[in-house]
Amino acid sequence: MVDALQRAAQLRALLSTYSYHYYVLSQPLASDAEFDALYNELRALEVEHPELITPDSPTQRAGSDLTEEWQKVRHAAPILSLSNAYSEEDLHAWEERNLRLLPSGTQLDYTLEPKFDGLTIVLTYENGILTQAATRGNGEVGDEVTPNIRTIRTIPLRIPVHPESPPPPARLVVRGEILYLKRDFEALNQRQIEQEQPVFINARNAASGALKQKDSRITAARPLSAFIYSVVDGEGLTLDRQWDMLEMLRDMGFPTAREAAHFPTLSDIIQQIPMWESRRNALDYEIDGVVIKVNDLSMVRELGVVGKDPRGAVAYKFPAQEAATRLLDVVVSVGRTGRIVPSASLDPVFLGGVTVSSATLHNYDYVKALDIRIGDQVIVKRAGDVIPNVVGPLLAARTGEERAIEPPARCPFCDTPVVRPEGAVDVFCDNVYCPERVYRQVEFFVSRGALDIEGFGSQTVKTLIDKGLIKDEADIFSLTADQLLPLDGFAEKKVQKLLDAIATAKSRPLERVLTALGIDGVGSTIATALANALPSVDLLENAEPETLSSIEGVGEILAQSIYAWFRDPYHLQVLDKLRSAGVTTQGMAREKSSDALAGLTFVLTGTLPTLSRDEAGALIESHGGKVTGSVSKKTSYVLVGDSPGSKAEKAAQLNVPIISESDLLGMLENR
Ligand code: IVH
């Protein structure tokens, strides 16, 4: 029995360390299988000796159905809220008000923290063990949700997580926020769709729902996360600064925001805000602003509270990214590749600083999975530069008058029956002569990212197609002044300018021409890689998928799609017309010194003694060799310098010869 007791304690400690490294630090110490084996051993011990189960046992994260009605708990100290600021002026006014209340000459420094868009949680640890978790409730009394909170992997059941950290106070109450990481929320909704269950429209509400489940096994199946940002009560703890408090929380093993920062003045903080606004969409979690806190906690105490808001902190709120509005109709558009995309025509709504009246519905599978209907109240999201999209319908607001949205049977522009390639989520118009497709393709062909023909706007494209002067993008090169002059608004000067710009575009470099062709998946980066590897349209046209997929950045699927593009008679016809018009179809000849390294593939790692990595790469290529980014069995040599990365290890594992810079130079001399 003593053995079982000791072993259980040992297993709990190991599993908790492994979990912390896995979930909080994202640096696993053990394989999943090792973890599972230890976990199962602990489970077995606990089944045999239930008296060994402790509240901090990792097995308690699985949830149980034993929860009765929520118990009410009175918070150790009021769970305060925050006052809001919306502008720089608001922040200055906040600081000035505070300075007036403090001894003259006081200098304030601040922490800048993300304002997590989740739910407040208050955690109590007694002698290091999580004994209670409660919601904010009305700030004085909250609901006890301990079994549910135990299911959240990033919340330590026992602190400190690292044995070497200082012991926690006998009683520690901390406060934080429960939320879904963006990727977990997306995965959760993906699962809902697969199981034909309604999707969650709003991450915060969904997190709240998961937290308040009566059966904690349901909570356990929901991938909630947590961030802890302050100490509400800590017996015997003397903390002078918010910044130290954050550090202490992190040291104890609590999940804290890596992005939190400390600045000496409010001006520094204000300078940071635009960066936070733009970084907002790149964060793993949703924020609705930032929180600015006076760092000196004795000053925070001195400043006190107004109503429920401490004066020592303020929330700077960002503009909302979501709003509810009515979906009035669905507009169908056809892109240059023939992809048919439904978009929502919306009752205009002010969102993130602009009026939004249309938003994408992605595709008809999405519409169906979310059961979006015309007439629905929908949530629209506009995150930064991303095209606004319809997140989902508000089912509770349905009146029964809503109409289902079906994919069109025929292309709305050319009446060709639509097709749906196997495995695709989209439906397509496969008529290459579809006027809408031609319009979109020509519009793209002349655009800034492609051939960049100045003065060739969308309206001009439309007019030329309507008048029958062009049938595809290659036709623009045979336009004449006689054809253009009779058109409305085309005076002599404008016509000459346009014709000159078209003539100039003929000699754009090959990668531009490849981009302009509009091959699905071939943007400017891939086009450049293609033009470097196979520097002519003829070479590309004759390349096998295997050759194409050996090009940097080109996967098998893309290789197939490029190969198929060059097999389409319509595209070949366009290419012929481009060739006869004198458009660039050859790449610039690159200087080649020799063929000494032909057929050899190199990977570079570490700092070389004389050459820079770029110089070494150029040298290899100029002698016919190839440089790739990662080591595989196909790699001929790994060129290693000082402080090499893992590529040198990989080379050793795969038995790929390792050479030095002087070996390389030797190879060039010897051949
Ligand atoms: S501090 C007295 N810090 O925002 C301290 N709150 O709008 C008050 N929140 O109820 C809270 N991130 O739930 C603080 N880094 C953060 C926060 C944060 C999100 C929430 C908190 C609060 C609400 C106020």
Could you walk me through the main structural features you see in this protein, from its secondary elements to its overall organization?
By secondary structure, the protein is an alpha+beta fold. The protein has 6 domains: 2-62, Orthogonal Bundle (Helix Hairpins), CATH 1.10.287; 83-317, DNA ligase/mRNA capping enzyme (D-amino Acid Aminotransferase, Chain A, domain 1, 2-Layer Sandwich); 322-404, Nucleic acid-binding proteins (OB fold (Dihydrolipoamide Acetyltransferase, E2P)), CATH 2.40.50; 435-505, DNA polymerase, domain 1 (Orthogonal Bundle), CATH 1.10.150.20; 510-581, 5' to 3' exonuclease, C-terminal subdomain (DNA polymerase, domain 1, Orthogonal Bundle), CATH 1.10.150.20; 601-670, BRCT domain (Rossmann fold, 3-Layer(aba) Sandwich), CATH 3.40.50. Helix content is 36%, strand content 19%. The strands form 6 sheets. Strands 14, 15, 16, 17, 18 and 19 form a 6-stranded antiparallel sheet that branches. The chain has a 5-stranded mixed sheet with strand order 2-13-10-3-9. Strands 5-4-7-8 form a 4-stranded antiparallel sheet. A hairpin with a 2-residue loop joins strand 4 and strand 5 (129-135). The chain is globular. It starts with a helix and ends with a helix. The protein binds 2-(butylsulfanyl)adenosine.
